[in-house]
UniProtKB/TrEMBL annotation:
Pfam families: Gln-synt_C
Transmembrane segments: none
UniProt cofactor(s): Mg(2+)
SMART domains linked to this entry: Gln-synt_C
Family: Belongs to the glutamine synthetase family.
PROSITE patterns named among the record's database cross-references: GS_CATALYTIC
Entry annotated with the keyword Electron transport: no
Lineage: Bacteria, Pseudomonadati, Pseudomonadota, Alphaproteobacteria, Rhodobacterales
Species this chain originates from: Shimia sagamensis
Keywords: Ligase
Highest taxon, organism lineage: Bacteria
Name of the protein: Glutamine synthetase
UniProt-listed InterPro entries: Gln_synt_N_sf, Gln_synth/guanido_kin_cat_dom, Gln_synth_cat_dom
């Protein structure tokens, strides 16, 4: 984990008045930062050791609704507390906010004895520990795609989210002129995140109007998840500061390309040697890499809820949209769900193109590690790479609905063995509720289609 402040440095900055606020945050099921604002001096004096939060923070939906049916907490159980244990290795300046620092907390039982098993950070830590026992470290990088709109969050909410207007007028993929017009947001984002200890590499226009991509240097699996989460949070706040809505909704309009969050992954030895690389093997791909990829393919259905957690997530999977529809692998081919990148080099790695911009990176990476570990244990063979257009050349579809993905998660022995029955049942309930909430609402599409003609 990599912050850019020590507690002693924070104390000095607090004494000088440069930093007066500390955000102590957990990561909830949806991948959001939730927590408290502390007076910096109080944090330095005592709150750095622990604080507390209501345990409903890991049992609500996007609306903060107290969903029935969770075994971990409920009205009948009284909604007690979790302990928030700041991980001081994540302490950093939040340079996009005046006088503010930020720290990520572990979510522990009320007495601080152990991580809460279904907490996203705890779930990723468990899979990292399993890999460590095998002698490996997971290395990951995520891509953040999002849309910037002319209007603010408040303006769009008051309009009922009608007449959404992207900040640009045409496809800006790699387009320097068009993205120059968005530099007020993006330059601030790159520079303040870098000043906050996030190893930003750069940004580029993506393949739609008003769509940007932010790239962060690879790192350990935990660093990748935390860098992603902080950057996503900051992007929304920076947009808000400048009067623009920044949205990570995967598919905001049916005729627009969606927003993804591709995840790159490989394993290294404890000595820092890339374990996916074998210079003598075809494509430079080690036997370990093939087995890991084989696990991702075999258990792709099982892990999809963790990559695509909402009803809207599945609207992104459309032919010809650069979003995958087939659970196949290929070599440097953006039509497949799993793309081999850097073939023939030490940088050889697997890019999973399934996750949307709405993914929780802790859950997504944990699930992929679990599938990859199982692939190694079972010596899964991924077969030959697909060539050509995966949209046309394969019938091996990824789950196309949240319902289908939920049933795959419910029945996943692999994930139950890797994460525990209680954890999987918890996230099955999360996915069930998302479907139930959607089905209880009358949509604009239904009214427009049937109001007169039905």
């Amino acid at each position: 984990m990599s912050g850019n402040l020590t507690l002693e440095e924070l104390g000095a900055l607090s004494a000088s008045g440069e930093i007066d606020t500390v955000l102590a945050c957990i990561v909830d099921m949806q991948g959001r930062l939730m927590g408290k604002r502390f007076l910096a001096q109080h944090f330095v004096d005592s709150a750095w050791e622990e604080t507390h939060c209501c345990n409903y923070l890991l049992a609500t939906d996007l609306e903060m609704h107290t969903v029935e049916g969770y075994a971990s907490t409920s009205w009948s159980a009284g909604y007690g507390d979790y302990l928030m244990k700041p991980d001081l290795t994540t302490l950093r300046k939040a340079a996009w906010l005046e006088g503010t620092a930020l720290v990520i907390c572990d979510v522990m039982d009320h007495h601080g004895h152990h991580d809460i098993a279904h907490s996203p950070r705890g779930m990723l830590k468990k899979q990292i520990a399993r890999l460590a026992e095998m002698g490996f470290e997971a290395v990951s990088a995520t891509e953040l795609e999002f849309f910037i709109f002319e209007q603010s969050f408040d303006e769009l909410a008051k309009s009922g989210y009608r007449d959404l207007t992207p900040i640009s007028r045409y496809n800006e993929d790699y387009h320097i002129l068009q993205t120059t017009k968005e530099e007020g947001v993006m330059r601030t984002m790159r520079n303040t995140l870098y000043a906050s200890g996030i190893p930003i590499e750069g940004s580029k226009g993506e393949a739609e109007t008003g769509q940007e991509e932010l790239n962060i240097r690879y790192g350990s699996a935990m660093d990748a998840a935390e860098n992603h989460t902080v950057a996503k949070h900051a992007a929304k706040e920076i947009g808000w500061q400048q009067g623009h809505a920044v949205s990570f909704l995967p598919k905001w309009r049916h005729d627009k390309v969606g927003s993804a969050s591709h995840v790159h992954q490989s394993l290294w030895t404890k000595d820092g040697v890339p374990a996916f690389y074998d210079p003598e093997a075809e494509l430079g791909m080690s036997e370990l890499a093939r087995h890991y990829l084989g696990g991702l393919l075999k258990y792709a259905d099982d892990i999809t809820v963790f990559l695509a957690p909402y009803v809207n997530s599945y609207k992104r999977f459309q032919k010809g949209s650069f979003a995958p529809t087939a659970k196949v692998w290929s070599v440097d081919n953006r039509t497949a769900a799993f793309r081999l990148c850097g073939d023939g080099s030490k940088a050889v790695r697997v890019e999973c193109r399934v996750p949307g911009a709405d993914m929780n990176p802790y859950l997504a990476i944990a699930a992929m590690l679990a599938a990859g570990i199982k692939g190694i244990e079972e010596k899964c063979d991924p077969g030959a790479p697909l060539t050509g257009d995966a949209y046309e050349n394969s019938n091996e579809e990824i789950p196309t609905t949240l319902k289908g993905a939920t049933e795959a998660l419910r029945g996943s022995k692999m994930l139950r063995d890797a994460m525990g029955d209680d954890v999987i049942d918890h996230y099955v309930r999360m996915a069930e509720w998302e479907q139930e909430a959607f089905e209880a609402v009358v949509t604009d599409w239904e009214i427009a289609r049937g109001f007169e003609r039905a």
